[in-house]
Structures are given as C-alpha cells and as structure tokens.
Structures
1.
Amino acid sequence: MEAIEVRDLTRAYGPVRAVDGISFTVGDGEIFALLGPNGAGKTTTVEILEGYRTRDAGTVRVLGFDPATGGMAYRSRIGVVLQSAGFEEEFTVRELVRLQTGLYPRAHDPDELIDLVGLADKRTTRVKGLSGGQRRRLDLALGLAGAPDLLFLDEPTTGFDPAARHHAWDLIANLRELGTTILLTTHYLDEAQRLADRVAVMLAGRLIGVNTPERLRDESHLSTEIRFGLPPNVSVSELPALSAPPSVTAGQVRMATHVPVADAGRLTGWATDRGLDLPDFAVVPPTLEDVYLALTEENPR
Ligand code: ATP
C-alpha cells in the first residue's frame, strides 16, 4: 500500500508557481527524501501533505486521508518535526514530552521516548538549559509522541555535532524497522544517501528526478574517479593505457572513467607486475551530492 499518493499537485502564490504539477508516491514503511535548493517548493509540498496549507489543484491521499479534510483523525496518525519549533522555555524535558504524549489517543511512554532520542540525562533540565542540538532531539521526541504511522522530518540534524548526527541517523533507521513511514527534507546529501530508500529532487516547483540514490546515480552517467599517488621515479607516461588520460597535480594522479573495473584492473595489474605501490589508491563513485548538483545544474529554472 502507498502511504502517500500525490497526483498533479499545484500551488501558486500570486505569480509564483511554488508547486507546479508534481506526482509521486511514497510506499508504506519507506523513507523518502525530498531534496532541492532553497525556494524549490519542498516546504509548500510538505505542508500541503501535513494539512497545514491548501492546494490549488491535484489529488493528495496520505494514509488514506485527504489532508485538507482529514481533521483530528488524520493529525493523530502523523508526526511533524519542524525546523524550529518554539518551546515553552520554563518546562523541563519530561514535562514537555508528557504534555505532548497526553494529546494523543495512542502515545509512546514519555520516559522511553526521552531515552530513545538520547536525552536521558536531561530529563529534568529546563528547555532554556538545552543546547541547539539537544533541542532538535527534543523536537524529534515531540514529533514521535503520538507513535505516528508517518513522520514528517524537516532537516532533522541541522546544528548537530557529528556524533549526534550519527545517533540521529541510527534512531531514524530504527524507526524504519518499526514500520514508520518517513518523509524527510534535508540539505545534507550524505544524510539522504545514508537514510533514504528513494529521493526526489525538486527544482522550481517540479520534480526532476525520483528514484533510489543508486538508480539516480546510474541514470546520471557521471564518471567514477580513480586516484592514487604516482610512485617515486615513475613518470605518468609509463602508466598503462587507460580509457581516458589521467591528470597529475603535485604527484597525485586522477582520472575520470566510465569503466572503473577495467581501468582499476589495468592499473593494479601494471603496479603488481612491477612491484610498485600506488599510495592511497581509491576508486570513488559519484556521490548523491554529485548527482544532485548535476541534475539541478542541467535543469536551469
Ligand atoms: P527552503 O529550502 O528554503 O526551505 P523550499 O523548497 O521549502 O525552500 P518553499 O518554502 O516551498 O521552498 O517556497 C517555494 C516558493 O514559494 C518560493 O519562491 C517562495 O518564495 C514562495 N513562497 C513560499 N511561501 C510563500 C508565501 N506564504 N507567500 C508567498 N510566496 C511564498
């Protein structure tokens, strides 16, 4: 079953076609990342799905509801983690989480939720005493309060330190194991690559790519980079014939290839035959960030 079905969705603000006829589906239990530059129309799309913004045209079904008319029955099934929720600063973490869980018919246990987001040692700390990253964790706990079937996560790790980001990624991956469908918006492409089953790239109100990160990469036809340090006393002209000429800067050899296995095989075979090491030899496929940049640059507004 599809958790989200969107067909021909449009929304304009005066002359600005913020969402310009998009269609996509998100499967039950899927983590789906909506990517795109500032102003692409992501927030407008997500807020229509949440039921907080009206649409001009198109059909939208989320968990079987039309968000525009689903009311409380719909809202109680979704969780929303916004970029900057305003908190009551004098409440403690536990008080806020208890208040939030009290709003839902079927809610998580407040203390388990606090543990889940890694705020166990901040249970009795007032909100005003939390760091930025800890506030984001509290955001996440509040979004999960009603044990939602579908979670909207808006830039969940902005401002997190590296360890906290990894913790949040583990947490989000655990939610997937529990069967929670997640619609994620993020500007961190490594986050999308790590978490998302499928990504959608939005630009100027349209979707210009929807697929798994791997298929988007294959469709992009971007090259893989092979790089290594040139061994001492070896000149670049001695390297074996490759599918494309390498470039050398400060002793570092780089080449872009569409046949990485063949070129890597030639290079390693050549080096092994001569008893040479290729320092820091690496075969680096394009990242989701490379694919995203190529897609958005190829499709000017
Ligand atoms: P960001 O990554 O910066 O959050 P976004 O992809 O979420 O951007 P939206 O906030 O959906 O983009 O905005 C899409 C377009 O609609 C932009 O051109 C924006 O200026 C315009 N827009 C958004 N909200 C309104 C509004 N309430 N009134 C008028 N124009 C708006």
2.
Amino acid sequence: MNIKIGGIGAYLPKLVVTNDRISEFVTTNDEWIVERTGIKERRISEGENTSQIAIKASSVALKRAGIKGEDLDLIIVATITPDMFMPSVACLVQKELNADNAAAFDINVACSGFVYALETANSLMKSLNYKNALVIGAETLSKVVDWTDRSTCILFGDGAGAAVLVNDEKKGIINSYLKTEGKKGDSLTIGALEFNTPFTKEKSETKQYVEMNGREVFKFATSAIIKAIDGVLENTDVSLEDIKYIVPHQANVRILDYVARKLNLDINKFYLNLDKVGNTSSASVPLALNEMYEKNMLNDGDKILLVAFGGGLSYGATLLEW
Ligand code: UT7
C-alpha cells in the first residue's frame, strides 16, 4: 500500500506588504531586497492566528480530497509559531473540523517541518493502518519577527498549506530523507520563555524573535539541499532526470540559483513563488504545491521532489509520484 496526496489546499492572509511598505519603518529599499533575496512582497496576518489559517487551508484540501473532518485518522501540523504552547495547533484544527476520530499533534522542525510531517504521517498511516491523514504547514512568522531588524524582517511571510494523505494501490510517496545538525542550531533561533521563578539563580533575557546568522544559514542551505536531493534519490530507481519539478523551501532565490547551477539543472525545474510570499517556513512547500495544482501543473505519474532546510539546523526531502 502506498500513501499519496489526495487533496491539497492553501490559505494566505489578505494583507499584501510590499518592500516599499517595509522601507517606511526600517532603512532598506525594494532594489536591495529584490536583488539579494528575490522577494517583492509577502502576506502578513492582521491578527488571524496559525490555527485559523491552518483551518482555512485544510478545508480546501479536504474538499478537494472529497472527505470530511470525521474521516481523518491523523492530523499533524508543522509549525514554529503555534497559537499557544497547549493545546497544539493540530488539536485546535481537530476541534474546528470535527475530526473527532483523529490523533492530532504538532511537530517543530522549522522550515523543514512539512517534509518531516509528511514522512511522519506516511509511516504512521502504514504502521497503524490509517486511511486518511491531514498534514499542514502553517506559520504566522510576523509574530516572531523583530520589525526593527532589517536583516530579518524583510524575509518572512505568513501562510498555510495543507495536504490530505490517502491510501493508493500504485503510487504516492516513494522515499524520504531526513537529517538534522543540532550543533549548528545557534545560527537560526527564536527564544522562548525565560526562567523567572522563586528558585531561579540567575535571571536571563531571551529575545523571543528570529535571530539569524544569514551567511552561515545560506552556506548550510546550499549544501543541505544538494545532500537531501542526492539522499532521497539514493536506493530508488528514480534519477534526477526523471523529476518533473523540484518544490523547494524558499528562503532566498540566490540559494536556489546556486543549487541549480551546481546540479546543472534548469532553474525552471524549481517551482518558485517567493517573490509573492517571502519565506513562509513550514508553509512554503505546500503553498507552492497548491499553486502548482491550481495551475494544472501536476499530472498523474509526475515524479515530484520536495526539499526543505531550516532551523535546527534541519533538512530533508520527499520523493513522490503524483
Ligand atoms: O528559512 C530559514 C533559512 N534562512 C535562510 O536561508 C536565509 C539565508 N541567508 C540569506 O538569505 C542572506 O544571508 C540574507 C538575505 C539574510 C542577507 O544577504 P547577504 O547578501 O548575506 O547580506 P549580508 O548579511 O552579508 O549584508 C550585506 C550588507 C550589510 O551592510 P555592510 O555591512 O556591508 O555595510 C548589511 O547591513 O547589506 C546590509 N543589509 C541591508 N541593506 C539594505 C542587510 N539587510 C539589509 C536590508 N536592506 N534589508
């Protein structure tokens, strides 16, 4: 039995924030941002939380898959920007979708989250005999961005993408490749709560914002994508030439230009939409997949390679037949 994507959906907040708009409150400009990153605009939530945008994306995916919330056995949300520590975003989604028969939980693998969640669902569906699962990548990164830091606030956007996974006799997920390098984790962080108890020895001040060593992450990303692509194809009978599209996590178009050159691939093999949405972390891969679906770019039998990298530091890839 194989596990395939039976329905895909996405949701973007309505507010479009252009580079010019950001240059009204930090010293930057459209030219620098476009040239150094490829980003022209992003969507920013005006208050809709991660679970709310996740639910909207999920409703589209469920409809396209032709199933209802009550048919779900499993809900996994990949996010680093949950509404709260508890309950999980997945449980909030479960409540709203009346998915009373599902087990629901979140995973935190930053921008690689969707790829990790797909394989977690794939494995659980096979081991526990589940019929239907919902895998979501959803982020409201605008909550955790320091809007006074021009080196990071220009990069990120909010959004959600969701995929319904179903059983199929012939096709679906072929292979996954997952890796993390915890020793490099300091180069991309978001702080959490601090100790402030009657027993705390030394109070510290943690920044609850994205902090990034851009150059370090850039260097990591270029090699991680290549390793993940090689890794997911290894021991399969699929070669790079057989891949119709690579759907990458998008943080900076220069990272993907570099990878395309290194692998001798036409950049058009990579599906890119970060000019419109920026870096949406775990939502970027399903947002792109949804756009491709809506443009009728995904046909039966196409071999698609999803690849992601990010905080952790982490990276991973999924090879699938559509
Ligand atoms: O999904 C999470 C993974 N994250 C990533 O993959 C991000 C990877 N890194 C990057 O995409 C790039 O490193 C950045 C886009 C973050 C930065 O680009 P860069 O080419 O590495 O620039 P830089 O940090 O080396 O900065 C170059 C110059 C600096 O000025 P000086 O010191 O040379 O005078 C910065 O202060 O650009 C300046 N700068 C800016 N100027 C205008 C930094 N941010 C801005 C800005 N507008 N927004």
